[in-house]
């Protein structure tokens, strides 16, 4: 599949994981991703793990549905994709310092080289790419 950028996603699938919509999903996703990343440099690894945690948390909190996580690599990129059943796209917010939540997409937009949303028949896929 081709994204709006005209580039194909990386083609080596490192992880394809189905997740329940519960409080354990972000931790399960993070742990599975850490194991799948292999020899990825630690700085990139930590960024990927944070992005995975934020995207899966968003799926649990906002979609309240099961989700799926895919991690792909290739062409000098690592890509994270989280699919859920919600139709609404994520929003990058700038919450006040007193608000304890609402910074996930702000962090992702700051850390990822690119991110976006692809709408599907069943909901959406939010993706983020890093170029190590």
TrEMBL record:
Q: What InterPro entries would the database entry show?
A: Anti-sigma-factor_SerPK, HATPase_C_sf, HATPase_dom
Q: Which GO terms describe its molecular function?
A: protein serine/threonine kinase activity
| Protein name, per record | Histidine kinase/HSP90-like ATPase domain-containing protein
Ordered alphabetically, the record's keywords are: Kinase, Serine/threonine-protein kinase, Transferase
User: Which residue intervals define the domain Histidine kinase/HSP90-like ATPase in the entry?
Assistant: 27-128
Cite the Gene3D superfamilies for this sequence. Answer: Histidine kinase-like ATPase, C-terminal domain (3.30.565.10)
Task: Give the span(s) annotated as Disordered.
Answer: 84-103
Q: Which CDD domains match?
A: HATPase_RsbW-like
Q: Which organism is it from?
A: Prauserella flavalba
């Amino acid at each position: 599949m081709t994204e709006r950028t005209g580039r194909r996603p990386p083609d080596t699938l490192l992880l394809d994981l189905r997740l329940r919509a519960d409080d354990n999903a972000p931790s399960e996703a993070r742990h599975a991703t850490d194991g799948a990343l292999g020899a990825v440099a630690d700085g990139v690894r930590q960024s990927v793990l944070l992005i995975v945690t934020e995207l899966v948390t968003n799926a649990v909190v906002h979609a309240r549905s099961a989700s799926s996580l895919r991690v792909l690599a290739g062409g000098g990129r690592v890509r994270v994709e989280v699919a859920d059943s919600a139709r609404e796209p994520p929003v990058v917010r700038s919450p006040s310092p007193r608000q304890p939540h609402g910074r996930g997409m702000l962090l992702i937009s700051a850390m990822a080289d690119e991110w976006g949303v692809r709408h599907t028949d069943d909901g959406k896929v939010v993706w983020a790419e890093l170029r190590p």
